[in-house]
Amino acid sequence: MRLFITALRPDIYRYSTMRLLQVSFRYRRRQPFVLEEADAQLAPGDAIELTGVNGAGKSTLLRLLAGLARPTRGRIADRPGVVGFAPDRFPTAQPFTVTSYLTRMASVRGGARWRPWAERLNMGHLLGLPLGELSKGSAHKVGLVQALMADPGLLILDEPFAGLDADARETLPAIVTEVAGRGGIVVASDHQGGLRGLPGLRSWSLVDGRLKEATPAAPVAPASSVPPATHASERPLATVAVTLPADELPRFLTRMRDQGYRTSALDHPPYARGARMIALAVFRLAAYVRSHRVHQALLLTLAMLAIVYGSRAPKGTEAAVLADGAVLIIPILAWATRSLLDTEPDRQRELSAVTAGGRGKEVAAGLVASLVACAVLAAVGLAWAVLLGLSERPGRDVLGAALVLHALAVLAGTALGALTSRAVLRSPAVSIMSLVLGYLVMLLLSASPAYWLTVPLVVWMRAAGGGELLDQLPQLSAISLVWCLAGLALYAWRRRRVG
After folding, report:
1. Cα angle at 242 between 277 and 280, to 5 degrees?
2. Are the beta carbons of 393 and 313 closer than 8 angstroms?
């Protein structure tokens, strides 16, 4: 049995106060501010009810608190490292059952336990159902479980009582009390007043873009004695892991709690750095495959290969044929990337960002998943060409050059597809046209003397056809790599900026 004294884990219970410092937000320049100069403090143990008329900006404030949006002015300081977010409408348009979805989200959370929360909310009969078959209330329970499974230091609930059955409505206030009682912060947008019976409940309201507190109240008292809240810089933080016999666990827990610590027993070690992003990339790939969108790109790839390599290329043209294949597969790879990134609903993209620990990890996971999918398609294309499209097996130098060109094609296709995905271009028509035009611009520009202003696709083919590919490959690779990385960086910057 491995025990972690979680009161000292800086990513969950920091015993410092989260602060809103002159926070203002608007969606675009020259538009009015949705939130203006909000100042507030959220101490460990606080449970806060947020009210306001429709359109007052409650959901916007919750997204700011969760880290899904950046303040236009001001800043939010000392946000707990583990955030749970339950949206008002859970995204059911996903190709998973309830069990599969929660298991995969738990993997992103580092193996968090979700079944106890599912039992608390009486979800046993729902676990085998596809998400798309759930009612609004049942789907809302799934959203609550994925938010609660990691013992969040900050729990954000958007209309948590909407659609819930009577038993769940009675259970939820007790859950909120537990989260606040162990030092977490709970903020709930709730027009039904389901939390108003909680002792120490703070009440916020949004009126004309201004955040107001009705009656300041003392925070919910933790269940056990807790060290006074101090800033992280004043009280050093550490993570302590203790291994002990399982039969000694109850006495050890009692002794630690008597001394003012909060403890929890875990069967798994702390999650390795980067593992959350990898688990999320696997989640994205699974959704792409299960949605059958992968078949579109695979069929396009096979059709292109059948046309290009319908007859075996004559001896001596191996480099030219392989270079042509690398160029022609790029729009298919771009389509695959766009399709993969668009598989995930917008609301699930937000949940993924919160679960993975930030927008940056969510963006990186999507790109990693896209690169993997494109690499598989490119490998199929190259293998087909070598085994079935050539009269003679190419030499190692030509095969190595073909591998480099196909790797660059993967990067180029991923960058083009990402820049034309729904997260960047909301209109499907504009997205598709931009993908096609982007590819045509690369071809036309690379055929001109200014070929260095883009990925030089035409120069790839000319060099291969003229027998100069091996000599020019370092220069062409450097130019191509720069533009591919620039496209990927532009996508990442755009996503982090607009969500």
Report:
1. 10
2. no
Provide CB contacts within 8 A for 122, sequence distance 6+. 165, 167, 168
Judge contact between 417 and 336, C-beta under 8 A. Answer: yes
* Contact predicate 51/201, CB 8 Å: no
Cα separation, 321 vs 307, in Å, equals: 12
Per DSSP bridges, beta strands 154-158 and 185-189 are parallel
The predicted-structure confidence for 325-382, as pLDDT tens digits, reads as follows: 999 999 999 999 999 999 999 999 999 999 998 888 999 999 999 999 999 999 999 9
448 phi and psi, to 5 degrees?
Answer: -100, 170
What strand order describes the sheet that includes 154-158?
83-86, 154-158, 185-189, 47-51, 202-207, 210-213
Residue count (the chain): 499
Contacts of 345 (CB under 8 A, 6+ apart): 91, 93, 94
- Percentage of the chain exceeding pLDDT 70: 85
Dmax (CA) of the chain? 84
Strand partners for 212: 205
The 10 Å CB-count burial string (b at 16+, else e) for 325-342 is bbbbbbbbbbbbbbbbbb
Bridge partner residues of 467 (DSSP): none
Instruction: Calculate what percentage of the chain has a pLDDT beyond 90.
Output: 63
